[in-house]
Amino acid sequence: MIIILLGAPGAGKGTQAAEIIKDFDIVPISTGDLLREEVKKGSDLGINAKTYMDKGELVPDEVILAMLEKRVKAPDCANGFILDGFPRNTAQADMLKELFSNNGMKLDCVVNIAVDKESIVKRLSNRLTCSKCKEGYNRVSKPPKEDGVCDKCGGSLFQRDDDKEATIRNRLNVYDNKTAPLIDYYKKEKLIIDIDGSKGVLDIYSDIKDKLSAFVK
Ligand code: AP5
Fold first, then answer.
1. What is the pLDDT of residues 40-82, one digit of tens each?
2. Which of 14, 40, 133, 194 could cross-link 153 (Cys pair, CB 3.0–4.6 Å)?
3. Distance 12 CA to ligand 1 centre (A)
4. Beta partners for residue 136, in sequence order
5. Can you tell me the mean pLDDT for 174-186?
6. 136 in helix, strand or coil?
7. For the packed helices 61-72 and 44-53, what is the interaxial angle rounded to 10 degrees?
8. Which residue is closest in CA terms to ligand 1's atom 19?
């Protein structure tokens, strides 16, 4: 099964991907995480990508596509995968279509998670991530038991560089101008599942699970 998770920054794509993989035997692929790994390594790709990410702008399409193509062809993706954060514009969606057609892959559905903007700003400015195991937290909706420390592995929690209010607002503008048109793009292909992302994490996941199960039957 191959799924795309579509939604504004902070809509809960990564959070829901973590739930989906508990029930469906597929691999989560976040282009944002792949880029952040490159930034951490200090590779040329990472150094270049960081200049866009820090401003909340999209990294150039060719850079992302090369990275994604390598990832989806890895052996662990043979059973299927969840794309979180890709595609981000219609050019990337066209590139993805070509990549799938050249490799005998088929997109099953696109889960579109909708959340209002002010809730998103609140969510992202309070997001924390474990530097060791990558577990996600939120000062408001999912605080760690001990301030700044991961409940699971004891690692230290950090705030992403692009989770500052001005950058969050620019990411939301970029989403409106470049990514939101993908909703119609995939509606035309009859692949969209619409999800209300304003509920609690498990209620949202229950909606996704019901719809996914029916869709991929
Ligand atoms: P990326 O890492 O993809 O970030 P994003 O799309 O901005 O999405 P986020 O990871 O911020 O949010 P999310 O929807 O996963 O929400 P989450 O589950 O964490 O991209 C970062 C940058 O990389 C881009 O700006 C760009 O520069 C570059 N990039 C990446 N892909 C690219 C591409 N394809 N092309 C070009 N450039 C690319 O949840 C957020 C918070 O809310 C968490 O704290 C969570 O605990 C909390 N939360 C989640 N669900 C709920 C809920 N239901 N109720 C309350 N709180 C909740």
1. 999 999 999 999 999 999 999 999 999 999 999 999 999 999 9
2. 133
3. 7
4. 129
5. 98
6. strand
7. 120
8. 14
Report whether 127 contacts 163 (CB < 8 A): yes
3-state secondary structure of 134: coil
Q: State the Cα–Cα distance between residues 136 and 205, nearest whole angstrom.
A: 16
- Ligand 1 site, CB within 6 A: 7, 9-15, 30-32, 35, 52-53, 56-59, 64, 85-86, 88, 92, 123-124, 127, 136, 138, 141-142, 162, 171, 200-201, 204
Q: Pairing mode, if any, of strands 81-84 and 127-130? A: unpaired
Dist. CA 171 → ligand 1 center (Å): 10
Q: Which of 84, 87, 104, 83 is nearest to 96 (CA)?
A: 87
Residue 101, CA distances (Å) to 4, 96, 107, 193 in order: 16, 8, 10, 22
Query: What is the pLDDT, as a whole number, of residue 216?
Result: 65
pLDDT at 215 over 80: no
Phi, psi of 96 (to 5 degrees): -65, -40
* Residues in contact with 69: Cβ distance below 8 Å, sequence separation at least 6, in sequence order: 99
Q: Specify the ligand 1 atom closest to the Cα of 171.
A: 25
Element containing residue 14 per DSSP (H, E): helix 13-23
User: Which residue is listed with tokens 């191959």?
Assistant: 2
